[in-house]
Structures are given as structure tokens and as C-alpha cells.
Amino acid sequence: MNETSREELVSYMKQYGVDYTTGNVTPTLCALFGIEPPDVCGGFTVPQVVDQAYHLFGDDGKCQKALVFCPDAVGDVHMQRHPEIVGRIKKATDFMFKGTTVMASVTPVCFATIFSGASPEVHGIKEYMKPVLSIQTLFDVMALAGKNVAIVSVNGCSIDMIFRKRKVDYYSLRTDEAVHQLSLKLIEEDYYDLIISYQTDYDHYSHLYGPWSDEAIGQLELSAKYTESLVAATDKYWSKYNRAFLVTPDHGNHEISPENTKGSHGMNIADDMVVNHFYRLRPAQ
Ligand SMILES: [Zn+2]
User: Fold this and answer.
1) pTM recorded for the entire structure
2) Cα of 58 to ligand 1 centre, how many Å?
3) Structural domain that includes position 92
4) For a FRET experiment, which of 46, 227, 239, 256 has its CA 20 to 30 Å from that of 62?
5) What is the pLDDT of residues 88-130, one digit of tens each?
6) CATH code of the domain containing 107
7) Å from CA of 46 to ligand 1 middle
């Protein structure tokens, strides 16, 4: 466990009075798969999830498959303002944890923490830039454990860029719909142990038209729809495996000002910093 990462992650948790950090995704997935987390990790294994895995999968039972869906910029503020939409993600999963992301609350900084458990001070991405990470990540330890990993995302986005040069298959496509359809196909093909499936367009339309514009909310509805269909696909095609399904957005967003209602994020304010992560476990049939 890396002390610097731990301190930085905990500082945001304390600031917002929550007991979850996005840095928990990697150590919790590692615990589910029974592998050691990356050496840079400062996050916590989530006890409720690990306990449920113990009950569902049994003493020696480990998670065999996981799908992690990453809708960009869907924060706790979206659950507050549109519970009829984000509530569908909660309904499709077992646990919802309200937690903090990291500063600067922009995509590459936040996903670097989600998929390493390292804080920005340790992973090194502190602003909007997309270098290939040199630290140990979830993808390195999964590859070391012999797991097959796919990252499915849109061309040139942060997730597509910063985790390159690993023993991972990178599927870089042009649209969210193509990413979603390929994710469904990869679940059905049953080759990968871990699939990361990304959605960019809520964030994209929020920047263009505003977080609460019809265009952006249409994409938020797609986040719920994608969640439901990915869950259904894992139940249909991965039923013989102990499996996990996670929804892990990177940050929230806010309107720039009352006069300029376009979306922005990157600040240390609740609308940007507080997000919900969702977990669902199912045992092999
Ligand atoms: Zn983002």
C-alpha cells in the first residue's frame, strides 16, 4: 500500500465526508480476482463487496469475469437531479457508493486513479494530458496473473491513450454505439476476463450544450440503457462464471455560470468531485 496515494485519496474523502474513493476500484477488483493490487495503490478494498463475494462465491471462489462500464462525467449531482434516469443504474446493480474522485477532476487524471488506485501525486497525471502511464496499473497486474483484458473505447480518449503498452487488447472505435455493440459481442465471445467499456458522449454534449440540455440528458439516458443491456449480456453469456459488473464514472460536472450554461469540470467542488460507483456480483449457475 502506497502511503502518499492513501493520504491524498483520504484528504478528498474527508473534505466531502464520504467513505469511498474512486481509488477503491482497482484494489477491490484485485481482491475479487484474488491478485495483488498495484504497488502504487492507496485505495481500499470495499468491505461490503468483498463480503458479498465471500458469501456468493464461497471460500475459494474467486471472481472469474468482470465488466466495468465507464460513462464519462456522470456524478452524484446527476443522481440528485435525475434520479429517474441514474436510479436505473442503481436498480440494475447491488451496491451504490457515494465517493470522491481526485483533483484535477478531469478525465485522464481521474481514470488514471480509477485503474491504478494511485493518487495523482503518484501516477503523475495532474492536468488534462494523456501520457502513457509508467506506473503499475490494474492492467499490468491482471496481465501478470494471466488474465485477458480488453479496453473498448472511442478513438483518442483518455482510456484509449494512457493505458497503452500493456498486454491488453485495445479496441479503439469512432462512436459510443460501436463501443457498446462491440462490448456486447466480446461478452458473448467469452474470451476476456476483464472488459472495460467506455461512453464519452454525455460529457461531450454537456460541454457543447450544457449538463442539463436535452442533448446531454439523452446521452445520460443512454448510460442507463447501456448499463441495463450490458448487465443482461453478462447474465446471458457469463452465467457459468462468478462475475462482477461495475459502473465507474470518472467525475461529475457543473454549469459554467448562470449566464453560460455549458458544462465544465476540473474544480474541487461537489458537483465535479462527488460521484457514485456501482457494483453487482453474481455467482456461477
Ligand atoms: Zn471525464
Assistant:
1) 0.98
2) 36
3) 3-282
4) 227
5) 999 999 999 999 999 999 999 999 999 999 999 999 999 999 9
6) 3.40.720.10
7) 23
